[in-house]
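Q: What would this chain look like folded?
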Amino acid sequence: MTGTRPAPRTGVPSAPSSGRLVGVDVARALALLGMMAAHIGDVPDTVDWSDPTSWGAVVHGRSAALFAVLAGVSIGLVTGREAPPGPPTIGRLRARLALRAVVVVVVGLLLMTLGTPVYVVLPTYGALFLLALPVLRWRPWALLVLAAVCAVASAPVVIALLPAYAGAGMVGVQLGLVYPVVTFATYVLVGLAVARSWSGTRRQVRLLASAAVVAVVAYVVGNTVAPVPADTTGAFPGVPFVPAGAGVAPALAQVLLSPRDHSSSIVDVVGTAAVAVAVIALCSLVFDGRGPALARVAFPLAAVGSMPLTVYALHLVVIAAWPEVPHGASTWWAFTVGAVLFAMAWRRFLGRGPLERVTGAVASAVPLQSQREPGRA
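A: My prediction, written as C-alpha cells:
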C-alpha cells in the first residue's frame, strides 16, 4: 500500500466487468465519427437551422472539441477521479501521462507524413497531456477559472502567433495553429474539472442542464452580436476571421464573439466546450449503470470509443491509401460500419486496441506501487 487513499465510489457506476465507463466510451465514439464526417462526409460548412440538410455541419469544431474535453475527462479518471493522490503516487502518474503524451505526439507526427488533406489533431492532443500535468490536483473551480482565462485569451494569442506561421505549409499549420494550444487547453481543463466532479446522478443532471444553458446562451449572444459573415472566403481553421472593410467594433466582435466554428473566439470555445460537456453527461446518464441490456446496446459504439487512438489513426491510413475517396454520406457510412465492425471484433477477442496497448506498455515503464482499484473497498 502507498498510504494514498483510493478514489471514492462514484455515483456513476462503471461498465460491467471491464471497469470502463460505457457512457464515456460512447461519447468518445461520437467524437470520432463526427471527425470522420468532417473529413469525408461532405457535410455543409455552416448550420442553417431552417434547413435540416445543413444540420450535419454541427460536426465542424464540436467533434474535435468533444475529443479534447474527453481527453481531460480521461486524464481525471485515470488519476483518481474526485480524489487525486498525493506524493509520491501523483508523481508516478504524471510520469506515465507524460510517456502517453510522447506516444500520442509520435503517432500524430507519423500520421502527418501520410500527406492526407486532413489536419491531424494528435500532436496538439499529446501536448495538452503535458500541459495538464501541473494541475492534476487542482480543485474543479480552479480548473474552470483557468479554463475561462484560456477561453478569453484564445483569439488574442492566436493573432499574436500568426506571424510565426507566415509561409507555413500543411505540416507547419497543424502544429499549434489549426488546433491552437490555448484554445484546446480550455477543453482539457473543462474535461478534467468534469472528471473531478463525477459523483452522483444528480450532479450529472446538473452538468447536462447547465452545459445546455451555457451553449444556448453563448450561441445566441454570438449570432446576435457577431453573426457569421455571408462570405467567409479566406477564413482559416483556428484563426479569427474579419471580413474586409469591417469597422473597429464589428471586427472586435468577430474576433471575440463569433459563433463560427474553429474561430477561437470566446463564444466558439465556450459554446463547443458546453456542447461537449452536455454530450458526455447525457451519454453517462443513459448508459452508465443501466444494466447489461443497455451495455449490449451500447457495445458497438463503446467498442469504437474504447480504442480512439487506433480508430483515429486507421481512418487516416485508409484515406491515405485511397486518395480518390469520394466524399459523401455513403462514404461516411462505410467508414462508420468498418470502424464499428473492426472495433467490436478486436474488443471481443483481443481486448484493448493495438495502439492503446502500445501506449499502455510505454506508460507502464513507470511502475506504480500496489494499491486498491478505484471505487472498490
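The radius of gyration is 20 Å.
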